[in-house]
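Table S7 (text form). Paired inputs.
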Amino acid sequence: MAHLDTREKLAILADAAKYDASCASSGTSKRSSVGGKGIGSTEGMGICHSYAPDGRCISLLKILLTNSCIFDCHYCINRRSSNVRRARFTVDEVVRLTLAFYKRNYIEGLFLSSGIIGTSDYTMEALVRVARTLRLEHDFRGYIHLKSIPDAAPELLEEAGLYADRLSINIELPTEAGLTRLAPEKDGGRIRGAMSGLKLAIDDNKDARKHYRSAPKFAPAGQSTQMIVGADNADDSAIVATASGLYDRFGMRRVYYSAFSPIPDASAVLPLVSPPLLREHRLYQADWLMRFYGFRVSEVQEATDDGHLPLDIDPKTAWALKHRGQFPVDINRAPREMLLRVPGLGVKSVNAVLRVRRQRRMDLADLGRLTRGIEKLRPFVIASDWRPTALADRGDMRATLVKPAIAQLELFG
């Protein structure tokens, strides 16, 4: 590895980290340096790098400790056999960069991952030293997200949780067969075992803090994971089933989906083209249905066509069209659970409907004032002045709900 200065390393290792999507900072405890104590905070805004699930703009220094790796996962740009320029930060360099970027108001936290160098324990220990140095030596109170290494010793993962707000372990691929085929050096059982260990530590810490105020916090923002979409043959039905299992078994705060992107000198077993980015978007919408709208995984799977979510309409609309017998829904009488299944009605809109209808009966205009657009809702709702008799019986309803594709016009055409 050629000698590189810090600027050159930053260019290489920040670019290498762009494939990791799981870097939202919501859900952690609030800390600040108001009053002259410490450096940094988990609040406020700087230059935006990503959006948290609650809509806040967050700015994170998102880098790898190194893009060298002893593993040779087919889908990874940083795999052992990849022909890419390599670089490696020292622990002190990452600490200095984080503090320097924060003091210039560029960031509000650190997202740190790494390729595996030497051994899993050696790499994880270096990641932990970064977080420990920032917290204990510099009293850094900003957000820290560490990408954990499942093969590392449990005591290293436990120490990481004392300094990091969030820990994440990538599930990598939706199915065990896909992992065996594309990342044979990784073990799905060990990955899930590490996730289970983190969940147990997080739950134990929550219980301890109920009884002892002095108990240190452990990963207060929980754990997250990420899976690659489109690198193997797993369909959307399998992906949402895997995600549902991760939420139920390991208490994940987020499951992130990353559309596979063709990489230089790719293995012959990989697809030649990436999946449409809209597929990734539909998976996030399906994920939202399971987390916030009360949909069971089997119901989300019912919205698929031959295992894949349709790209021309969102999953909730696809489900509604396959369950026409449950619609239209009376907005003045239906329970909250059914209102949440109406296409075009979000959680905030449903809560507003429930508040308003306690005072008076709602008409279609009232509903229009609570939502972004009424056209999508009309076939699925009944109001005091509206009953969609003709719309509900249309055989081409799906065609009326699909937005026409927008073509880019030529400036000098």
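Next pair, protein 2 of 2.
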Amino acid sequence: MGVLRVLSVTMGRISTFRSYQIMLLFAAALAVVAFYYFGSEKQNFSSTTKRIKETQASHNTNRDDADLSIDIRSGHPESRTGAGDEPEGKPSRFHALMMFTKVDKSLNLLHKFQVAMRSVAKHGRFLEEEVLVLHYVSDAGSRELGEKMLPELLLDATFRYEVVFHDVGTLTEKLFPIVEAMQKHFSAGSGAYYSDAIFFLSVAMHRIMPKELKRIVQLDLDLKFRGNIRDLFQEFNHFPAEAVIGIAREMQPVYRHTFWQYRKENPKSRVGDPPPDGLPGFNSGVMLLNLDAMRHSTLYNQLLEPERVARLAEKYHFRGHLGDQDFFTMIGMEYRELFYPLSCGWNRQLCTWWREHGYGDVFQLYYRCDEPVHIYHGNCNTPIPDD
């Protein structure tokens, strides 16, 4: 009887509902049934929540990877070090220059060129957005030869590169007015190899190259790389505030000999003495030229003036024959702050000529290098060891 009474009351209440209220109740009932029925077949509330969390975790992981990639490849200080400071959005360019004249007329120079380029290709490693720009100062015949050979020599390179040829005649014409006065102090004489103005290119490159070119590495042809050339550009990071050039010391007693008169008159001077405490002079086989710093250095540009060169040459009784190397050595005796000393491993000179020409007793003091070798320099036609 109680059940019949409840049913009767319920039916009475339902009968008082309007038709649209009945429809709402019916729709709500269907929604509940659908949730439980279909959820049991596909995904319920818990699985949906889990999927959302997994998606968010995956998104966060990918975001972290992207940030790390940006930090390493774009934002890390080393990603642009030594490059030409290209405008944002353009590839970072690392500029290297070689003298490349008379190669078409000399099998010896041709062989050196092949060794150098193959070693650069073998050991060179750059980031994807970076470009190694290879500059060659050449005559017409050497340029034609270089254009034919470079694609094969750099075939195994894993990095992007560009090649730029500079006409030796055009550069010499621009250089001559700047370096004419110093040639008599640092050249072997009229018609000699180093008497040509082009062999003072590094001295005044900042004045004749476009201002957009801010840093460049100048390399001799008789080199063999044993490490990544990109690492050489990282040495620009270590330049002191006033330094404009990175260069390694001379590893023979060349300047002990050249400064003999000054040393005799100044027996307590360190000029020409061996490392670590002496001033043995520089070797120009590998040079880092901060062209931007050279342009802005009042001191360095004053030292290019003929009267300053003459005054220093007179003071040191200097008469050389090695072009830019002699100039840098002479001013380095007086103004060491202009130079950043490269490790001997970045220019491991192999020539031993002075050991057999009067300096055998002190030769090893200059020649010793305990640093890892990154570049061999086969100067004075010395054979370079195999890898």
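The chain has one domain: 79-381.
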